[in-house]
């Protein structure tokens, strides 16, 4: 019982005499009662917990025992909560509360699938106690009342709390399940394994704009005499917790035979989380953009050029260990992060390293290298793995001043697959959003997903992970995805393909005006790619807009197509690639190409970019079409005049004005001139003399000239 002074007790007794009864009758039938909403109390007798209890005689379980003579009561403080476990995800349609005299004035009724992340079903302010019934619509395994303001000086006190379930709302989305037909799970004993790789490659080698998508998942073990050639929209990943858990005595190969030895269009494929011992000592990974190489242990060397050393335009390595030498050879540019290499030979224009053990020293004044000892902030991409026979997703922890690989220490946490809605082709945006509202994460299986509304990611720490370059297409001019201004969302491994009706923004991270500090737990965007046109007409004013603070953009290719179907100055119009309005945003591995206006427009303070690769739009009809404010051409990378602090390393912009080669672009980069804005190792290049740059940054830097494809460089600005 409560311990009170005599005066307090007498005052309370007088107040209680005015109440009709200290123990109200059993809870009345809910006002939410409707066809399909059960009158039975699904919470009765279920396990219950609470933030606190007044005494051993008022436990949480007393509010769910069906006895209106027993009660739960809390400590005399705000806030407090009471939670019940229904045992499985249920469709929720009503909640009844039977208060004792000490009731809650302000509270929320909430549900959760995991007991950690909560969705508010109903908010009550100015509650009057007694017996109340509330209609709700949602689902969850856990239901709680979350009290924020008491009506009395005592705690919260409930005789009973009833939960009603039924089928009047939308049935709950179930987590987990199988991974679908285009996820190919193999182990060392899988029969005809080489044939499986060869069959997929035969269909995908040149299928640049097709709709087929594939993901190979390799169980832990040793695989002998395998050569997994990867074509378009094909990913191969190990299912171990560490790369060395999946040992391939063979090769993971990307070459360019399909394109006559030219690797500049080897896009949209990936290899992750496995070890390779190449047959001839060196693995070949001749890729262009959107082809990440992550968490790989190469027990030998790595060749980044195609057979015959034809053109190549890549690429990205992260969290990988290459025991031997990496040879980029004909690669024009490359970014390597938080890795270790046995050596690195040559390169063409722009090779950037951050946090790479064994990286060559900076020599940008005379060569292609820009090297930072550490990466200031990074978090590795989430990945699927097997814990025994159970699928889980590992979510690596944030690292600061990282150098070298993150494994085998593997700081982070694991999420079971039943906390993910496994999205398969045919899923609707409504179902996807319902799953998110329930507290589920998303695992997109390989496929193409047409959506009639934006995917709304509103919960902190949500993981949205794609397999096999899963592709999202917004129809009828909707946006593809919105992320709320919350902590720790992880977006990884998918492609957004613009629809034929103009979208305002394909991916928006944080609403306009976002102000929250996420430095302790930033949102990350990793291997998320955007395509405007190529597979057909595509239109979007903005590809990606980042309004939240502290976001990490780790490897993206935002591409307004220069070839394929539906390509033309206005046919696949897209004004801006990346717009950054949030503060303290970091980009590591930023590839943005061919936009009609600014490829990157950075308005947030204290932004940082490590490696930027750009080509200006090929199809500019004439200089007049891109003249603005007395300037010919929109900069590839524009820092807004209002910015007082910004820093970037290893930046390159190339022009190839195929429609009008007489165009002279004013500059590749435009920034305010002040002591807080610093650019390191910047270059511009005219590809074969198809147009030129007058300057590198603002009005500084020598012009490009002729057709020799020789960079014009600045090592430091200002």
UniProtKB/TrEMBL annotation:
Residues 30-166 form the F5/8 type C domain. InterPro entries: FA58C (IPR000421), Galactose-bd-like_sf (IPR008979), Pectin_lyas_fold (IPR012334), Pectin_lyase_fold/virulence (IPR011050), SACTE_4363 (IPR059186). Transmembrane segments: none annotated. Gene3D superfamilies: Galactose-binding domain-like, Single-stranded right-handed beta-helix, Pectin lyase-like. The keyword Transmembrane does not apply. Residues 49-58 have a biased composition (Polar residues). Residues 1-28 form the signal peptide. Keywords: Signal. Pfam families: F5_F8_type_C. Residues 43-66 are annotated as: Disordered. The keyword Nucleotide-binding does not apply. This is Discoidin domain-containing protein.
């Amino acid at each position: 019982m409560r311990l009170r002074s005599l005066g307090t007790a007498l005052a309370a007794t007088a107040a209680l005499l005015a109440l009709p009864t200290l123990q109200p009758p059993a809870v009345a039938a809910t006002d939410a009662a409707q066809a399909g909403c059960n009158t039975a109390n699904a919470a009765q007798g279920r396990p219950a917990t609470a933030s606190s209890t007044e005494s051993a005689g008022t436990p949480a379980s007393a509010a769910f025992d069906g006895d209106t003579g027993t009660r739960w009561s809390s400590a005399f403080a705000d806030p407090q909560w009471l939670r019940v476990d229904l045992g499985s995800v249920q469709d929720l349609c009503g909640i009844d509360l039977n208060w004792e005299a000490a009731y809650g004035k302000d509270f929320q009724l909430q549900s959760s699938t995991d007991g950690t992340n909560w969705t508010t079903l109903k908010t009550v302010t100015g509650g009057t106690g007694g017996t109340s019934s509330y209609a709700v619509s949602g689902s969850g395994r856990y239901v709680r009342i979350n009290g924020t303001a008491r009506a009395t000086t005592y705690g919260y006190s409930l005789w009973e709390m009833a939960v009603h379930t039924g089928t009047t709302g939308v049935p709950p989305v179930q987590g987990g399940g199988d991974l679908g037909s285009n996820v190919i799970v193999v182990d060392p004993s899988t029969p005809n394994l080489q044939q499986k790789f060869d069959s997929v490659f035969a269909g995908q080698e040149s299928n640049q704009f097709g709709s087929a998508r594939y993901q190979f998942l390799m169980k832990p073990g040793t695989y002998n005499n395998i050569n997994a050639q990867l074509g378009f929209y094909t990913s191969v990943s190990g299912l171990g917790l560490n790369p060395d858990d999946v040992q391939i005595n063979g090769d993971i190969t990307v070459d360019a035979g399909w394109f006559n030895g030219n690797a500049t269009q080897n896009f949209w494929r990936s290899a992750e989380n496995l070890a390779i011992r190449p047959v001839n000592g060196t693995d070949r990974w001749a890729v262009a953009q959107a082809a990440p190489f992550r968490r790989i242990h190469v027990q030998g060397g790595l060749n980044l050029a195609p057979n015959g050393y034809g053109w190549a335009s890549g690429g990205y390595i992260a969290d990988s260990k290459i025991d031997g030498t990496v040879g980029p050879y004909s690669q024009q540019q490359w970014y390597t992060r938080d890795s270790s290499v046995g050596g690195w030979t040559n390169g063409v224009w722009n090779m950037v390293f951050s946090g790479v053990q064994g990286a060559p020293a900076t020599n940008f004044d005379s060569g292609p290298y820009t090297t930072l000892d550490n990466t200031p902030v990074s978090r590795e991409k989430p990945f699927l793995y097997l814990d025994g026979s159970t699928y889980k997703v590992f979510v690596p922890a944030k690292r600061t001043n990282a150098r070298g690989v993150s494994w085998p220490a593997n700081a982070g946490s694991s999420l079971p697959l039943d906390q993910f809605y496994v999205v398969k082709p045919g899923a609707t945006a409504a179902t996807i959003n319902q799953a998110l509202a329930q507290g589920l994460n998303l695992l997109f299986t390989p496929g193409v997903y047409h959506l009639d509304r934006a995917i709304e990611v509103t919960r902190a720490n949500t993981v949205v992970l794609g397999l096999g370059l899963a592709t999202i297409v917004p129809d009828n001019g909707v946006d593809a995805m919105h992320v709320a201004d919350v902590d720790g969302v992880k977006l990884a491994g998918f492609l957004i393909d613009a629809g034929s009706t103009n979208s305002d923004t394909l991916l928006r991270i944080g609403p306009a005006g976002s102000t929250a500090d996420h430095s302790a737990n930033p949102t990350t965007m990793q291997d998320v790619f955007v395509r405007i046109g190529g597979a057909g007409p595509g239109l979007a004013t903005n590809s990606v807009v980042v309004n939240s603070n502290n976001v990490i953009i780790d490897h993206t290719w935002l591409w307004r197509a220069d070839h394929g179907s539906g390509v033309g100055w206005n046919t696949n119009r897209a004004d801006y690639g990346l717009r950054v309005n949030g503060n303290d945003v970091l980009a590591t591995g930023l590839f943005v190409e061919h936009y009609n206006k600014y490829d990157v427009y950075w308005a947030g303070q204290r932004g940082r970019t490590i490696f930027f690769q750009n080509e200006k739009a090929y199809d500019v009809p004439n200089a007049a079409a891109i003249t603005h404010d007395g300037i010919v051409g929109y900069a590839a990378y524009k820092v807004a005049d209002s910015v007082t602090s910004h820093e970037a390393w290893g930046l390159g912009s190339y022009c190839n004005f195929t429609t009008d080669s007489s165009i002279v672009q004013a500059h590749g980069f435009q920034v305010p001139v002040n002591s807080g804005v610093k650019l390191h190792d910047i270059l511009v290049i005219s590809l074969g003399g198809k147009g030129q740059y007058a300057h590198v940054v603002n009005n500084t830097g020598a012009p490009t000239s002729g057709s020799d494809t020789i960079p014009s460089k600045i090592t430091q600005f200002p």
